[in-house]
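<backbone_tokenisation>
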Amino acid sequence: MHFLNLTLSSISLYVWETLAAFLSLGCVWLAAKNKISNWPVAMAASIAYAYVFYQNRFYSETYLQAVFFAFQAYGWWYWSALNTKKAEKSISNMPKSQIIILLIAFVICYTIWIQVYTQYYPNAQQPYLDTFLTILSITALYMQARRWLENWYLWILADLCYVPMFFWGKQYITAVLYGLFIALATKGLFMWRNEMKKAV
């Protein structure tokens, strides 16, 4: 009976992970078509993945989904008719003066978060890699919001690390999804570069 309960729980989690992956791909597809509906779909994906990550003891990723959810809610509002002062910032290279500042902020945030995280979640899967990728993703998200081209390098690095982390954590569908994200991030990098060249 205990084995049966574990099996049913695994199937349920597999369904949740599949749903989360399809929602993630759907929001990327809608975003590529410049549809505002990508935001609520992305929010649904974050909720689904928050559950999956929590159940698989990737607790830092669970918190990251909350950060994503907040950004997605903002994005939905920003591109909606409710915001009458929309203004798109042009793409640029990251100012050199910001590199050191961001690097210091990254190290401080990671140092604090790993201490808190390992204390409160001693049973977490791969805590050092999980927390590193959480802080890296938030940094990339901030850089993307500032429309700095270099954000794509961080996303590519993060996705390259996420694939083996999720594979080791037996989230095989998510590992494949993040493999696709590597290609999408690479495409995003070249698209932003071309847009920068056109603006010159």
Notes: Residues 136 and 158 are 7 Å apart (CA to CA). The helical segments are 2-32, 38-55, 59-78, 96-120, 127-145, 151-168, 172-199.
